[in-house]
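Hey, I was hoping to borrow your eyes for a little while. A protein chain has come my way and I'm curious about its shape. Take your time with it, there's no hurry, and the full record follows here:
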Amino acid sequence: MEGSGPAHPAGESPAVATRRFVTAGIETCTALDRSDLARRLRHALARLDETSTVLYVAGEYKQGKSMLVNALVGSEVCPVDDDLSTTTVTWLHHHEPATAHIRRRSDGEAVVDPIKFEEIRHYASEQGNRENRLGIDIVDVGLPSPVLAAGLTVVDSPGAGALQAGSGEAALSFLPYADALILVSDASAELTVQELAFLRRALEICPHVLVVLTKIDLYREWPRIAEMDRAHLSSLGVERDVLPVSSALRVEAVRRSDPSMNDESGFPDLLAAIRTSVLNDTRNRTASRALSETSESYGRLLAALRAEREALANPESAERLLNELNQARQRLASLRRSGARWTTILGDGITDLNQEIDRHLKTSIRVMLEHSDARFGAIDPAVEWDAAGQDLQVSVAEMGRDVFDRVRSGTEALIDRVTTELSEAGLSAPAIETADGTDLGSLWGSSDRSLVAEKAKPLGTGLGALRGTSSGVVLMGVMANLAGVAIATPVAISVGLLFGAKHVIDERKRNVERRRQQARAIVRDYLSHAQTEMAVESRRAVQEAHRLLRDSFSEQISGLNGALAGSIRTIEETLAASDRERAQRTAVVSDQIERLEQLLRATESQRSQIGEVLS
């Protein structure tokens, strides 16, 4: 076990320094025979090594979004064309050699299919997958890239109308699981009302938002547009710069290895902003969490060693301490039994969470159905079908985001309840990640949900009116004969025309009612599929949270049981030891305590420095 903490080379990054501190913690726990604590710190170290920062790129149709992504990663991966737009979500992460897969669902099960690199365009754009008719959830691309190798995952979102209606809500529903957002807007015009509305809501969800002005090589007036955009951001109370870039210049600069052209492209400033505002923040948060777990491990080691030193200094108290340890181990044994109270709390909490989510889903679907029925009851659906469909997609996306927020908050509340129950045993709350949610954006387009509106046929309408008029004339003639009254021909014809007009009006009402029934059927089918998809995905998320919590608490209990067994063995050896042996052991334990206190102070100092950066 080392002394005053790991050496701190000048200019070392917080992530690298944290890795050394956690590694020192693992070595210390292993040396003191606390494999349970060492295993926990290895998990923390793995999180440091595997930290991936998710950067979500969103923007309106044809704003240069996919070309920006290509320029960022240094490869023409995402489809770029004047007449085509991205239709599926594309994930790009570092991998050597380059790989590509499509992720989709088949009969409710997740399916991953490998594809050729040159097939990405077919699956990700309108060219081969118009309106995502293939039902692709994600096109997953791994490629060697210095930018991605820094721990960045870039997500290229679908393009057409991406910030409006359902697509905009789908983007917002993803943001809780992203570390940062790049909002792309080109230099042809200032930020639109839709872009500003999206930005306002995004800032409430995502901690980091970068506004990028693209295509500055095509528009001379881009400095003026950039200033207007900065003014718009200021009006929202947002103190953020607008980053002007030219993806075309960046691509050409990389091809030519031309540093001056690269500077002109604006990408060095964008990459610097990503590094300082996004990557470093994510790494610092992960590092702070790992250092906190290291400090907690040192605290547990110190508690055990101080108790041993007290027993060595006062053999009379050793018997009392031994009894306390044996009682603690008995209590711990009860926690390991089947049917322990904490397992009941966990199981009941998971059941309650599933039931709460089911009730919320049913209520949300019922409200949406009632709203749609009332809306279609007051209008001809053919007039507002597109707008109604977009509004419905917005509501479903909001429902999806709310469901997974409930999964996350419900899981956190359950962790608190179980941790409170186990606090006497000294167990701590585990850190788990809940599911990222599910993409409902492609559900509307997964089948034909167009409204069939009958076109008025002049001949059919005329014949219907003629039949109505004829019926009216005949009816008036019959009534006149029965009453023995002569009716003038003009009067009979006028009455017949009224009957004909009524026939036409009634036929139009019947057509509208048929469209209403069709619209209600389409909405019910869509909401039924949405409810089923959300129920399956939310239950899967809750089930995974249950497994992680159960395994984490069980692992802690098992590790603590081993630690207690070791402490009991040590106290028993202390009672049997001679005065000389106790004196020698006291010196060793005191030295270990001193070194641990030094390690703890150094670790806390490092965590404090990172905390100042985060604040």
Observations:
- Strands lie at 53-59, 89-94, 99-106, 109-114, 136-143, 152-156, 180-186, 209-214, 242-244.
- The two ends are 33 Å apart (CA to CA).
